[in-house]
Specification:
CATH architecture of the largest domain: 3-Layer(aba) Sandwich
Strand order of the largest sheet: 2-1-3-9-5-10-7
CATH superfamily of the largest domain: Vaccinia Virus protein VP39
CATH topology of the largest domain: Rossmann fold
Strand content: 15-25%
Number of domains: 2
Largest sheet: 7 strands, mixed
Helix content: 10-25%
Order of helices and strands: EHEHEEHEEEEEHHEEEEEEEHEHHHEEEH
Number of helices: 10
Oligomer: single chain
CATH class of the largest domain: Alpha Beta
Distance between the termini: 47 Å
Shape: globular
Number of strands: 20
């Protein structure tokens, strides 16, 4: 295959020559940004490390910007690339699960400690390694690795136990761990977007392996309605959410050290539309550039129910305006204008006055009863004084037009959660034995509740009292 000029995404597929129709269909449905170019590079019948190295060489020869690694037994959702790409990370993974019973997520943190389990679907997390069957990597990582470390990018020739030496590496080594080891030596962070969930297909037995329905990781924090009357999203929460008399909050923050309920980029909330009764955010909106702050706010409002309440608190640059004109700035003015700057993301990229904040919310066209309140505009320096608070009621949910021709048949909905094992109709022993019986389709949560009821005799739909406390993330 000759040089493909302008190809900025190479889909790298090591294969032994037999791919399933499930894989072929998922690959054909993969979505990429407009005016981008892609090319697929298969390497057949070679050891996996050798195949990956050959694909990297080819991608660098095409001057590609990214390699999307896709194993030929991984069935990825159509939006997998778009979700991984939007984070703009050097190395980021989707999630697929081991071909075992029960399946285990192929995400790893710390050395030789098995699958990393402490996350909920939708979290954006740092890890140390992952299976490379659904991974997006910037090609500059490979260029730098070759220049500074030399040697192959992928190899199975290594030892992973302290003090072990010899002339022959263990036979069960995997090539991906070697790459991640080199990447971390260069200081790269390894990420995983757990909202990208793929199936692992066993071609011989025709079985899909994915997250078990009872896995605590597959139940986001917002699915567990707290005891209060209302469900509240605290966006950009930091380590502490305020007390809400209206109900209890679910916190969202991109920093894992903040210990939020959902760890994610708050520009892309992994939450269904119209989930929350209240969307609250304090001193977060100003951290997004003025050219796209409307898109960020639109995303926050997407998860707010019609009839729900938007509550925003931002720094009020009018509070500093008089001192700017008088050329007499004080320390607190720098907080208001530029952020505290005590960590990488704590810089301000836009400023608000009462009129500009109200105009921003009005421009969305879905709110009424918009109220603005300033702190003590002439008072002494205090956080309450430089606050600008907005409250508004959502009266409608925007509808996006669908321009698909009417004669195009609608595809079946893509499941948010998969069963633990899904058999093809052609699987031996899976013949239909339900004649004369009512077939009941249960959601993953309903299946979990049904199993627990059969095992314990307790109805799992009767939620125990939480004593007002927020549900704690489970560890497996």
């Amino acid at each position: 295959m000759g040089r493909i000029y302008g190809a900025n995404v190479i889909v790298g597929i090591p294969s032994f020559g037999m791919v399933s129709t499930h894989f072929a269909q998922s690959l054909s449905m993969m979505q990429f940004p407009l005016v981008s170019s892609t090319a697929q590079k298969y390497v057949l019948d070679k050891p996996i490390a050798e195949a990956r190295n050959e694909i990297v060489e080819w991608a660098l020869g095409q001057n590609a910007n990214y390699i999307l690694w896709l194993d030929d037994d991984v069935v990825a959702p159509p939006d997998a690339f778009l979700k991984l790409y939007r984070h703009q990370k050097d190395i980021i993974n989707g999630v697929y699960w081991s071909k075992s019973n029960p399946p285990m997520p192929l995400l790893f943190r710390d050395h030789l400690k098995g699958s990393y389990m402490d996350w909920h679907v939708g979290d954006l997390i740092k890890i140390d390694a992952a299976g490379m069957g659904l991974t997006l990597i910037k090609t500059d990582v490979y260029r730098r690795m070759s220049k500074e470390l030399g040697g192959p990018w992928y190899s199975t020739e290594y030892y992973s136990f302290a003090g072990v030496e010899g002339d022959q590496s263990p036979p069960n080594n995997t090539e991906d761990l070697y790459f991640y080891w080199k990447a971390k030596k260069l200081g790269y962070d390894i990420w995983a977007d757990t909202s990208v969930q793929a199936m692992h297909y066993e071609k011989n037995q025709k079985i899909f392996y994915g997250p078990p329905p009872y896995a605590p990781q597959m139940h986001p924090a917002w699915e567990i309605k707290p005891k209060g009357d209302k469900l509240i999203a605290d966006i950009g929460s930091g380590p502490v959410s305020p007390y809400f008399a209206d109900g209890e909050s679910i916190s969202f923050d991109i920093r894992e050290e903040a210990k939020a309920d959902v760890v994610c980029d708050v520009r892309y909330l992994p939450v269904p539309a119209q989930t929350f009764d209240i969307v609250f955010s304090s001193h977060t909106l100003e951290h997004f550039g003025w050219t796209n702050v409307d898109k960020v706010l639109r995303e926050w409002c997407r998860i707010l129910k019609v009839g729900g309440e938007l509550r925003l608190s931002v720094p009020n640059i009018r509070w500093s305006a008089g001192r700017i004109l008088a050329d007499n700035l004080i320390k607190e003015d720098y907080f208001v204008l530029y952020g505290e700057q005590d960590y990488a993301k704590n810089f301000h990229a836009v400023g608000f006055t009462p009129n500009s904040l109200k105009a921003l919310v009005e421009s969305l066209g879905i709110f009424e009863n918009i109220q603005i309140q300033e702190g003590d505009i002439n008072g002494p320096p205090a956080p309450d004084n430089w606050n600008l608070n907005l409250q508004a009621t959502k009266v409608k949910h925007p509808k996006v037009e669908n321009i698909t021709p009417e004669d195009i048949e609608q595809a079946p909905p893509y499941g948010a959660y998969w069963q633990m094992r899904v058999y093809d109709e052609t699987t031996p022993g899976s013949e239909d034995t339900t004649e004369g019986q009512e077939i009941v389709n249960l959601s993953a949560l309903e299946k979990k509740q049904d199993i627990l009821k059969k095992l314990t005799g307790v109805d799992a739909t009767e939620k125990p009292a939480t004593n007002g406390k927020k549900p704690v993330k489970e560890k497996v």
